[in-house]
Automatic annotation (TrEMBL):
Disordered, as annotated region: 132-182
Domain CCD97-like C-terminal: 55-169
UniProt cross-references to InterPro entries, sorted A to Z: CCD97-like_C, Ccdc97-like
Organism: Salix suchowensis
Compositional bias of kind Acidic residues: 147-165
One Pfam entry name: CCD97-like_C
Protein name per its UniProtKB record: CCD97-like C-terminal domain-containing protein
Length: 182
């Protein structure tokens, strides 16, 4: 009967009826009953299967939570990089992610930086897909700082030019007044 156990799932109901003559054996009867319930389950059996599957999932989730890996920041960031960035990441210092951590080997730091680059590219793809303004893209913090510095430098230059123009006017006024006096 090991064939029914092994290949029973491929049998149809007519082929299963061929084994009814052997149903006096407990093991054969159990396999036949099990195969028939899989072919046409009752609503109670379907509900029971659903509950079993849900219980397995819940047990696995409980295991992940107890291990402390499922809700760790790194795990959440790997699962949904864009959502993590929207709710948590944009409030964090981006330079801290690239720095070496105490006790970390150089190879681990490099691997973490590579993973970080992959996550940033996934976040950017999602931002592009959602139509987020390019100025708000992750990783543009450096560009924004450079633009702000350039704008400040331009403002400083404009102020210097204005101050220079005012001094030139004063000098011109002084020169013209001395010329008039002579």
């Amino acid at each position: 009967m090991w064939n029914a156990e092994r290949y029973g799932a491929q049998l149809n109901s007519e082929e299963l009826r061929e084994f009814d003559t052997l149903n006096c054996d407990y093991e054969i009867n159990w396999h036949l009953k099990n195969l028939r319930t899989k072919m046409s389950p009752t609503s109670e059996e379907l509900r029971s299967r659903s509950v079993t599957v849900k219980n397995r999932r819940l047990a696995y989730l409980d295991k992940l939570v107890l291990d402390g890996k499922y809700f760790s920041e790194d795990a959440m960031r790997e699962r949904e990089p864009y959502l993590h960035h929207e709710f948590v990441g944009k409030f964090q210092d981006p330079s801290a992610r690239g720095m070496a951590r105490p006790g970390e080997r150089w190879s681990e730091t490099l691997m973490r930086r590579c993973e970080e680059a992959i996550l940033v590219s996934k976040i950017r793809e999602e931002q592009q897909r959602l139509g987020v303004d390019e100025m708000e893209w992750v990783g543009n913090e450096r560009n924004q700082q450079q633009q702000e510095e350039e704008e400040e430098e331009e403002e400083d230059e404009e102020q210097d030019v204005e101050e220079g123009n005012e001094e030139a006017k004063k000098v011109n006024c002084g020169v013209s007044s001395t010329e008039v006096r002579i």
